[in-house]
Amino acid sequence: MSATVPWASAAGAPVPAPAPSAVTDIPGVIARVSASVVAIVGKPEVKGNNRDNRFNLAHGTGIVVKADGWILTNAHVVKEMDNLTVITVDGKQYAGTVTNMDEESDLALVKIAATGLSPAKFAANYSIKVGETVVAIGTPISVSLRNSASAGIISGVDRSVSSTYRLIQTDASINPGNSGGPLVNLKGEVVGINSLKFVSIGIDNLSFAIPADTAQYVMQHFFTYGKVNRPYWGAELEESWAAVVGLPTKEPLRIIRVEPGSPAEKAGFQSGDVIYSVNQASFTTLVEFNELLKRYLPGQTVEIMVQSGGDLIKRKVTFGKQP
Q1: Is residue 99 included in any domain, yes or no?
Q2: Which InterPro entries does this chain map to (predicted)?
Q3: Of 5 and 88, more confident
Q4: Is residue 204 scored above 70 in pLDDT?
């Protein structure tokens, strides 16, 4: 391995090779991350003559997050999939069990009976920049193509594509089967979980990934609560026309419906109210509001700035558990 080969300095004296964390070339990144990437194969839950067809398989990609057999993937990869098999980079096969699933974030955990795996490193407090080089690793089209890599750039950040939370846009090639695999930076850190792409005539390389911070938020809840323990307040919000079409706006969100008996109703909120901030943190889109709610748990109380009946007031609401 290159880490054991001495490098020569200008004076001819050997110097240590760069540490793994200093890897900046794409081949080095792929070599470093591939051991943390697995293929996931199974039979889709279908009825009829195709049920026993051994070639009727569904597949995707997963990321090793704990050495003792914990795999992170997309919820849509493993939803309604039977007989899960997880294949590691060295070709070993393990029976997999879905332990946790959250369709709202499109993330799930799969457990296999394995030890000594290589967990991926997730980027922490990472500021993603548009134009930054990234690499996608996964299992496109066929299991025989597992651990295929493609490179591209970050095309956009804070994207909303009918999603609860923000997404990363990339032009790295993401094909069927890549879902659940890592999008990594040139430090070999996972910055996103490849999730979806737009497919149509005239559209090229328009793919999206779930940011690492959302993945870590969901995993932390999975391991702590067994599910994503989201706060519930029971008011349906509507964003402005400008926000819907993606234009910059300062227009606030409007309440269009309040659930009877919900925390929002108990706190005095009603349809037509306009909300500006939660604990002084402002937002103008539904995605920004949902991102803000990741800070809180059921049972916590927040102060919401609201315009109601022409008056700008503050109301306190205690979040409940999602019904």
Answers
A1: yes
A2: PDZ, PDZ_sf, Peptidase_S1_PA, Peptidase_S1_PA_chymotrypsin, Peptidase_S1C
A3: 88
A4: no
Asked whether residue 128 is domain-assigned, the answer is: no
Among residues of the chain, what percentage have pLDDT more than 70?
Answer: 86
Catalytic residues: 76, 106, 179
- 10 Å CB burial of residue 91 (0-12, 13-18, 19+) is exposed
What SS3 class is residue 15?
A: strand
CA distance 313 to 282: 15
Distance (Å, rounded) from C-alpha 196 to C-alpha 203?
14
Q: How many residues make up the chain in this entry?
A: 323
Cα 71 from Cα 64, distance rounded (Å): 5
Burial-class residue 26 by CB neighbours within 10 Å (0-12, 13-18, 19+).
middle
The C-alpha atoms of residue 142 and residue 24 are separated, in whole angstroms, by: 29
**Residue 33: inside a domain:** yes
Average pLDDT of the residues of the chain: 88
pLDDT in the model for residue 20? 47
Domain co-membership, 84 together with 107 = yes
Q: Which residue has the higher pLDDT, 68 or 19?
A: 68
The Cα–Cα gap between 51 and 42 comes to 12
State both tokens at 44: 């889709």
Task: Provide the CATH number for the domain around residue 206.
Answer: 2.40.10.10
Q: Please report, for residues 119, 297, 317, 318, the alpha-carbon distance to residue 266 in angstroms, rounded to integers and kept in the order given.
A: 45, 18, 8, 9
The string of DSSP codes covering 41-107 is EEEE---SGGGG-TT--EEEEEEEEETTTEEEE-HHHHTTEEEEEEE-TT--EEEEEEEEEETTTTE
Are residue 26 and residue 54 in the same domain, yes or no?
yes
